[in-house]
Amino acid sequence: MMSPPRGSDADRSRQVSGEASTTPRMKIGNYRWRVCAMLLAATTISYIDRQVLGVLAPFLQEKIGWTELQYSSIVTAFQAAYAVGLLCAGAVIDRFGTRIGYALAIGIWSLAAMSHSLATGVISFAVARFALGLGEAGNFPAAIKAVAEWFPQRERALAAGIFNSGSNIGAIVAPLMVPIVAAQWGWQAAFLCTGVLSAIWLIVWLLTYRTPDQEPRLSPQERAHIGAEPEAPTRRVPWSQLLRFRQTWAFAAAKFITDPIWWFFLFWLPKFLHAKYGLGLLELGAPLITIFLMADAGSIAGGWLAGAFIKHGMNVNRARKTAMLICALMVVPVIFAAKASHLWLAVALVGLATAGHQGWSANVYTLTSDLFPRHAVASVVGMGGFAGAVGGMLISTVIGLLLQATGSYVPVFLLAGGAYLVAWLVVQLLVPRLEPAVLSVDAKET
């Protein structure tokens, strides 16, 4: 099936400005949401894989004898590989397509997850984490590209919020599953189980995923709905060109400033709850599940909120940034978590912050499809993810040094509370109107 003709840059600008469509509503299919469900499943498995270590960290630290700084170095190994992998993953996915690119990524991380069961000390755990980071780096670039392929602009934030909620579902499933598996069959079995889940997903993905123009089960109405926007050329855009745009730097800056806070929540919350409130391995489940259930709700609500603003007449620029500001403000109260006198007060404050982060993240990821044509999305996401992983490496080292020296989480929670407002201001300064980037390839073909 031939692709619809590309529109002019003015057409793209009108879409971003949020002009209402005069096309009457019609019944369309929902196959695209099946694709979104696959992306949700992959993200869930990815976060189960990476969260296993976080849940087991207090237990493994006592069993193997890690110091705070050694634990931070294991976390940093994952983030270093994740940073490098994101730079490569976006380009690989843009070159080979979402189906093959995603398959390569999850194949690597499935083997890496299972290899943790062979680790015996700091170095071997760091090597396994490095391999896991390389594989998991492909998840978000591939998922965002799939959303750009399968969803019109007004639905992308919601789709991104739904699949991004898998990061919270994974963080919920991990404290439910991991302590039980570890208690019954040993900690090695927990890592083996998650690797098997990844392998099963890979088989299903290869058997089912196609682009909309290649999917025979897609109805004509849904195909037209997906293809209503101008389709970008398939030529790959080099990083050197993308780095010339303020839009690229806005996305990268938002990731660099706020991703480290999520890494802190993911890898240090069990240790914080253990150190502050004396929770054992089997007692961590309820607080962690509560926190990440709140995060899950925030992910979906954040994506829905921007879409609701657009439906009520806001242009994309105002709707996206208003939703982001609301999410940023939700994180601020977490500055009081380290001094909370009661466990469940701390849980409520951290849960509100994780909800704010995930709502923020759903909208930040959607900025790429607001600001760039589809063929450049995965590369931009990869570059921004690299920036976020570098920020995560920095904060991991800082946290390790702080905890080794003082044992206090107060400075970390203070940093977390203010990071999102700073990031929002940076985005506003760099892209005050969310104008789409006009790449040289696009200019030649219009």
From TrEMBL:
Give UniProt keywords alphabetically: Membrane, Transmembrane, Transmembrane helix
Q: Which domain of life is it from?
A: Bacteria
For this protein, the parts annotated as crossing the membrane are 69-93, 100-127, 185-207, 249-269, 289-310, 322-338, 377-403, 409-431
* Bilayer topology annotation: Multi-pass membrane protein
Name the predominant localization. Answer: membrane
Q: In this protein, which residues make up the domain named Major facilitator superfamily (MFS) profile?
A: 35-435
Q: Does the keyword Transmembrane helix apply?
A: yes
Localization in the cell: Membrane
Q: Where is this region: Disordered?
A: 1-22
PANTHER family attached to this UniProt entry: HEXURONATE TRANSPORTER (PTHR11662:SF285), SOLUTE CARRIER FAMILY 17 (PTHR11662)
Spell out the family assignment given in the record's similarity comment: Belongs to the major facilitator superfamily. Phthalate permease family.
Please report the name of this protein according to its UniProt entry: ACS family hexuronate transporter-like MFS transporter
Organism from which the protein derives: Dyella japonica
